[in-house]
Amino acid sequence: MHAKFFVFSKTIVEDGAGALDVRDNVVWFGSSNLTHHSAKTFNNAITIYGDADLYLGFVGYFGDLVDLNKSKHKHVEHPDYYNDEITPKKGFWKSGSGKVRVYASPERDGNLVLRQLKKIKAELGCKVHVAQAMITDVDLVNRLIKLSQDGCTVKVATTKRTKVVKKLKRNNISVKINKDIHDKSILVYARFNSPEFRYFVFTGSHNWVPSADNKNDEILVRLESESLYYAYRDHFYRSYND
């Protein structure tokens, strides 16, 4: 279990003028663990208020995390979230607006992150910023190299010079090593399954390691928002330039 999220039926929020307001259907998700160490490293989190569809999706996912650990599934070493016999949700739910999409792992035969990266049209003007605590997945690295070779500007911030991270550098991708990075985010400005350029933030709990796809309970959240993209880009450069 590597996912990091909270759901609240109601919270009290202070508005910009100092007044208190009650909000329903609240979801918090991000990269941070509830540890002292996480408070000292680069992390990110998002809170979304008043979205019943997103809230109920997370509540259902929490219930599945509990059910999948009951005796009826003890024989399943690594549950497949895309197996209808285990869950009818097919590992996916979204916000009422459709601007937020949540993908759950594990998936026995697939790579959630790679499927998203393959939706990017590589060309001049395309930008991809990756901040990841750990990168060992060679398929994801090869996809970044292909995006870069075909015209995208690709920058990566991570904690260690793994073999595949060294491969990124050999292929002229800018990589910065910062041992304090605990983020798990991808920022995309590109034609993304569309004729026009769009702004996306991917966040959640996924490290770029094989176990995140086919073993761990994880969430990968895709948000479409220009303002969020630029806020996350500022955060990216704080760790990239640190």
Q: How many discrete domains?
A: 1
Counting DSSP H or I runs of 4 or more residues, the number of helices is 6
Amount of beta strand? 25-35%
Helix content: 25-40%
The biggest beta sheet is recorded as: 9 strands, mixed
| CATH-defined fold name | Endonuclease, Chain A
- Average pLDDT: 91
Rg over C-alpha atoms, rounded to the nearest angstrom: 18 Å
Overall form: globular
CATH architectural name: 2-Layer Sandwich
Query: Structural class given helices, strands, pairing?
Result: alpha+beta
Counted beta strands: 12
Segments where pLDDT lies below 50 for 5+ residues? Answer: none
Distance between the termini: 30 Å
Nutshell version of this structure?
The protein is an alpha+beta fold and about 240 residues long. Helices cover about 25% and strands about 30% of the residues.
Could you explain how this protein is built, in words?
It holds the Pfam family PLDc_2. It is an enzyme of class 3 (hydrolase). It catalyses: a 1,2-diacyl-sn-glycero-3-phosphocholine + H2O = a 1,2-diacyl-sn-glycero-3-phosphate + choline + H(+). By secondary structure, this protein is α+β, with helices and mostly antiparallel strands. The chain has a single domain (5-240), classed as Endonuclease Chain A (Endonuclease, Chain A). It is 26% helix and 31% strand. The protein is built from six helices and twelve strands. It has helices spanning 52-67, 112-117, 138-149, 163-170, 210-214, 226-240; strands at 5-14, 20-30, 45-48, 92-94, 100-105, 120-121, 127-132, 153-158, 174-177, 184-192, 197-204, 218-224. Strands 4, 5, 6, 7, 8, 9, 10, 11 and 12 form a nine-stranded mixed sheet that branches. A three-stranded antiparallel sheet has the order 1-2-3. Strand 10 and strand 11 form a beta hairpin. Helix 3 (138-149) runs parallel beside helix 4. It is globular, with a radius of gyration of 18 Å. It starts with a strand and ends with a helix. The mean pLDDT is 91.
